[in-house]
Design a protein that fits this description.
globular; 18 helices; 416 residues
């Protein structure tokens, strides 16, 4: 139930985050905005989201996943619904800035919940499941928003999707408790959950009190952040500009966009789950964390470079297939990437902080990809060649980051 709720919450996060991308062609036409202005609006979410990540992880560690996730969901839902009242560039940008603040506790809360509830040998699949909510939300945003727009209008799409988060926030707050606070948990179940966690929990009680900023002294943390920046750069290209690419770059009409647009995200869901299953199976077979995590992450990124091949075909189905393979390979890798905060954390009280730092780097990537692609489109007359080459370059940098900058995947050694 914990993993299922985290999955649904992540799906709603990405529906609310991606619905603007699906509505861009209609918003751009109504307000006469150019691609650079649209890029700035798309990036607005990431500016506040990135800065808030520096504090969201600490906040999650401080108050717990139950309160942090519920509060975040209420905030992001209100700001999503309020987008229906936007009157132009300034109001759209302002509401996206506020949305970033609301969604900031989401992923650190997910990581914290999985770390609290899942033994080490089962965290891979649990992480893959909640992370796949980002793909499901992205995929659902296209048909949902396109349907609502075609029937009611783009403003109503934001009002309707905003209501989803309110309902989820209530459900999460009523249900979620940490294992030791969950009254229906038997002693045997609690022992099963905590068997692989006792050492770090003991360290959390007796270890030195270290500020979250001290985590930045470690090479592995920088490698994790840079690597996630690269993965997020490509993922957020799919979230923000992919619908526009299909309409302007591949000349899809509205029905084709709603039918074929979700395919890459839907393909990415089972491949993400597969990444979690493989990650867990390698650990059960006796692989060390370093070997298991790097194999899944680097291998997935290598396959994901197939995104570049889509430039060499005029066939829309072949291009969709190559982009689906690239996106799916990213999610395969991402299942292990989101295990890193829990496995690098020196104590359990640092898990949320590490997740926040990693997500901060990914959010900066969202800012850059949103603005850079818009600027490149204006500079090249609407060609998507340069943006796709740019995503390929960041995949190569990601391979270097995870493969070589991170030396070992093991708890960081803190000193008082």
């Amino acid at each position: 139930m914990v993993v299922a709720l985290a999955f649904i919450g992540t799906s709603i996060i990405y529906i609310d985050r991606a619905n603007l991308g699906a509505a861009v062609p209609y918003i751009q036409k109504e307000f006469s905005l150019n691609s650079t202005e649209i890029g700035l609006i798309l990036s607005g979410f990431f500016w506040t989201y990135a800065v808030a990540q520096l504090f969201a992880g600490w906040f999650v560690d401080k108050v717990g996943a139950r309160r942090s996730y519920a509060l975040g969901a209420l905030l992001w839902s209100v700001f999503t619904a309020a987008t229906a009242l936007a009157q132009g560039f300034a109001s759209l940008l302002s509401l996206r800035l506020l949305l970033g603040l609301g969604e900031a506790p989401g992923y650190p809360s997910n990581v914290k919940a999985v770390r609290e509830w899942m033994p080490r040998r089962e965290r891979g699949l649990a992480t893959a499941i909640f992370d796949s909510g980002s793909r499901v939300g992205t995929a659902l945003s296209l048909p949902i928003v396109v349907l609502v727009i075609s029937v009611l209008g783009w403003r109503e799409s934001f009002a309707i999707t905003g209501l989803l988060g309110v309902a989820w926030a209530v459900a999460w707050y009523l249900f979620y408790r940490s294992p030791r606070e969950f009254k229906r948990l038997t002693p045997q179940e609690l022992d099963y959950i905590e068997r692989d966690q006792e050492q770090q929990q003991e360290a959390a009680l007796k270890g030195p009190r270290v500020r979250w900023v001290d985590l930045l002294k470690f090479r592995s943390v920088w490698g994790m952040m840079l690597g996630n920046f690269c993965i997020a750069f490509v993922i957020y290209w799919f979230v923000t500009w992919f619908p526009t690419y299909l309409v302007d770059g591949r000349h899809f009409d509205l029905p084709s966009l709603g039918l074929l647009g979700p395919i890459p995200a839907l393909v990415a869901v089972p491949l993400g789950w597969l990444g979690g299953v493989v990650a867990d199976r390698l650990i059960r077979r006796g692989w060390g964390s370093t070997r298991a995590r790097k194999t899944c992450i680097v291998g997935g990124l290598i396959v994901s470079t197939s995104i570049l091949l889509s430039l060499f075909t005029n066939s829309a189905p072949i291009a969709i297939a190559l982009l689906s393979l690239s996106y799916g390979a990213l999610t395969f890798a991402n299942a292990s990437v989101w295990l890193l905060p829990g496995e690098l954390a020196p104590t359990t009280r640092h898990v949320g902080s590490l997740a926040g730092l990693m997500n901060f780097a990914g959010s900066v990537a969202g800012i850059i990809v949103s603005i850079a692609v818009g600027a490149l489109l204006d500079a090249t007359g609407g060609s998507f060649t340069a943006p796709l080459i740019m995503t390929f370059a960041f995949l190569i940098l990601g391979i270097i980051s995870f493969g070589f900058i991170i030396k070992r995947v093991e708890p960081l050694e803190l000193k008082a």
